[in-house]
Fold this protein.
Amino acid sequence: PDFGYPDGMCFGPDGYLWVAFWAGGCLRAFDSEAKLVRQIPLPINYPTKPAFDDVGNCYVTSASIADDCSDLDGFLLHVRL
């Protein structure tokens, strides 16, 4: 439970699989052998899905559904990688 639960995911321009971890408050990137190569903490508790635009900017959607939500849960975030 401290790790969070994998939710939405997509491949980034770096070739890694980027996964939003619900109740984990972070994005994690995995290589082609499923090795964790990067973790980005987020100012939210419930990230739902990362997405990348055509120039490599990362955006993360989030949900606001629980009592322990942060002030930013429920918003779209721009994440600098």
Q: What stands out?
A: The two ends are 25 Å apart (CA to CA).
